[in-house]
Every structure is written in structure tokens, then in C-alpha cells.
Amino acid sequence: GSCLLKGSRGGHVVIRFALGGCTNRPFYRIVAANSRRARDGKYLEQLGCLDPLPNAHGEKVAGLNLERLRYWLGCGAQLSRPAEKLLGLAGFLPLHPMTVTAAERLRRRRQREQQQPQAAPEDGSAEPGTGT
Amino acid sequence: GKAAQPKPAFTDEAVQTLLYKMTGLDLHKVFRPVKKGLKPPHYKLMTEAQLEEATRKAVEEAKTKLIMPPVLNEREPIDDVLAEDKVLEGTETAKYVFTDLSYSIPHRERFIVVREPNGVLRKATWEERDRMIQIFFPKEGRRVIPPTLFRDENLGTVFQQDRHEDVLNMCIAQFEPDSPDYIRVHHRTYEDIEKRAKYDLLRSTRHFGGMVWYLVSRKKTDGLLIDMINRDLLEDATSLITLYHMLHPECQSAKEAKEGKLQGVDLIKVFVKTESQREGYIQLALQAYEEAMATSSAS
């Protein structure tokens, strides 16, 4: 039927994460696949894996087949955003700008939360006087 | 003056031949039944010539089984930072370990990097490297986390059961030859054997050479010498002393031996007089040996 001809019209190769594992236990495989395939469906080649939960030594283990990754990137494969971020963390690609932006946003939010509790007790002490 | 000769290494041909001669070739011990799946015994009917051929082939196989595992210095810890990104501080709670899974790189040259939660990208330590390589490229007989057997407190129990050879075989399977754990377990085993004078446990195994090398470099050869004389292995005793002289050429017995070009029992006597701590015991053992030789040649 039509599933046999899926590889021949349209779509491009992407390198992205395919989710596996069970409930409350994710496991990602880094995979080169046609962009129109299902996320966990048939892929061209597995290029590595990522375990997002830390192990007994407190590490998140990731494996990357850099030789084959270079081959697919040379063939013109595109990367999904999480894949780009992971490769930026690994040092294979430069750090993704959104990683930097997210880090700065997190830092700013934490600063704001630190300043709010200092402001809140002042409000709390003023409120009972004016409220009732 | 004279140019000092470089100190002989474990891998030198002369050293290896001496150690190999001392290891001995007891076929019954080398081909002792290893615990495998049960199979009924296999009998063959052979002529004298065929039996000789089979023994020759067995000797060849035994030689491959007796190849000595390497003796290396402890490896230097890895301490290399590739990048520092202070921006990432506080975003992650756990570190990421990235392993390069390309198939055709040797394991020593593989890239294994760690991204710490404070943003530093550094090369992985040797323990992390060994663990990751075992996870992705598992080797038979090796565990990801080393068994508790290799801790100092548990080694004593195994030594009491006289299972030094099994411990050393497991150690070779588990650790790399230049890792500190491998060296520590081996040294502990050799010390225990030397303390209880159980040299025969390792004779005719591939660990004997390493043990002799360890004892000779630390000048603890007395017990081994006594054991060899008691078992009437005079050639082994002379090769032991030759090895000692090769490793410590500046000691007095080495100089005397070179001047007098001594051989055999004379070499041992000179060595006993100058270098050993337990002179009395060795003299006694030599006397007993000479009496035994006299009675056997008389009768």
C-alpha cells in the first residue's frame, strides 16, 4: 500500500529524540528519521541515547555516535531543538542561545522570588492594621 | 666513569625468560578442570606417537595460557577542562555524561566528557570512563560497579580460603592493568602469599611472574628462595638470584658474582651471605638439600 512509498516524496531527514520506556520512566533514543514519520516510528538509524533520570552516581548518561552524526549532518539532516540543545551541552555544537536565555530567565525569576518574601512581610504587617 | 645501564623493565626478553622458567609447567595444574557446563569424559585410544603429539600440543596450549598479564605504573588522573560556561550555573541539578559511541575508535582514545551543574565541561575521570565504556561496550566478566570482593576488608576472607588465583583472575577481568585498584589488589595478594609462604598456589599459573617481579623489586626474596630449595628447584633458585642481580646491579652479591662468574649453588651461597635477612633458615635448607643429594647419589 502507501506505507511502502513513504520514503520517496517530500519530507527531509531530521535528527530528533524518539521517546521510549514506561510510565514515569522516559528514555530517549537519538534517531535520524524522515520528518514525516511518527515520533517513535521507523527510523533510518539510531545515533545514540539519552537517559533523562539521574543514575546512582547522580549522572544523566547520554551516548552519541559522533561519526554517524557527522555523516548525517553532512548529508543535510536537520536537528530538532532539544537535539541542538543537547549537542550544545555536550560541546559538539556551540551552546544553544535558548539555553543561555532560559538560564538567565530562571536566574531573574529566582531573584524576584527572593525579593518578594522580603517585600511580603512588610505587606503582612501593614495589612491587619488596615484590613479589619 | 661507567655509564649506568637503564633499569631492566618487566617486558625485557631476558627478564621474561627468567620469570617464565621459574613459573614452571605443571600440566595437571594448568589444565585443571575449570567450572564449566557438565560433559561426560571423553576417552581416546592412542599409540605412543599419537600420545607424544597430543602432549606436545598440550604444552603449546599451556604456553598460551601462561602468558603473563602486564605490570604497569599507576595511571595519572585526568584533569582537563574543555569549556567553562558560567551562564549555565543553577539550571541543572545533575551532571550529564556524554560518551562517543563511534565503533572504530580504541577505548583509550574515546571522548567521554562531563557537563557539571555549574556549567564546566570537563573530561571524565578514569573511573567514570571505565563505567561508561562497560555500559555501552560490555566486556565479559566485567561489572559496571566493581564487586565488593575487591574491598580491603573482604579480601582477607578470600585469602583465608586460599583462593588467591581466583581473586587475581577476577581482578584481571574487572580492572584495567594500570588502574590503582588492579595494582592494590595484586599487591595485597602478593603480600599475603609472602606472609604465609604459600608460593605454590601461584606456581604454574600466569600470575607467578608478576609475583616474583614484585618480590624482587622490594627485596623480599628470602621466603621464596627457601620454598624453592625445599622443593629441590635449584635452577629456579639460580634464575631468581640472576633476576635479583639484573634489577639491583649495585648490591654486593651482584658484584661478587660478576667477578667470580659463579654458577649454581655457589651463587646461592654468596647471595645468602650478603643479601638475605633469614640467613639461618636458608643455610639449613641448603644443608638439607645437599644431604638429600648425597644420600640419593650414594644409594
TrEMBL record, chain A:
- Which is one Pfam family of this protein? Ribosomal_S16
Primary gene name? Mrps16
GO BP of this protein: mitochondrial translation
Protein name as it appears in the record: Small ribosomal subunit protein bS16m
Family recorded in the similarity comment: Belongs to the bacterial ribosomal protein bS16 family.
Q: Keyword Repressor, does the record have it? A: no
One GO cellular component this record assigns the protein to is: mitochondrial inner membrane
| Start and end residues of each stretch annotated as Disordered | 105-132
> Would the keyword Mitochondrion be found if you checked this record's keyword annotation?
yes
Which GO terms label this protein's molecular function in UniProt? structural constituent of ribosome
**Keyword annotations of the record:** Mitochondrion, Ribonucleoprotein, Ribosomal protein
- Where the protein is mainly located, per its record? mitochondrion
Where found, per UniProt?
Answer: Mitochondrion
Q: Which stretch is the leader sequence?
A: none
Organism the protein comes from: Zosterops hypoxanthus
Automatic annotation (TrEMBL), chain B:
Any single Pfam family the record assigns to this protein: MRP-S22
Query: Which superkingdom does the taxonomy of this entry point to?
Result: Eukaryota
Gene Ontology cellular-component terms for this entry are: mitochondrial small ribosomal subunit
Signal peptide annotation: none
Q: Which InterPro entries match?
A: Ribosomal_mS22
Q: Which PANTHER family match?
A: MITOCHONDRIAL 28S RIBOSOMAL PROTEIN S22, SMALL RIBOSOMAL SUBUNIT PROTEIN MS22
The name this protein carries in UniProt is: RT22 protein
Q: Which organism is it from?
A: Zosterops hypoxanthus
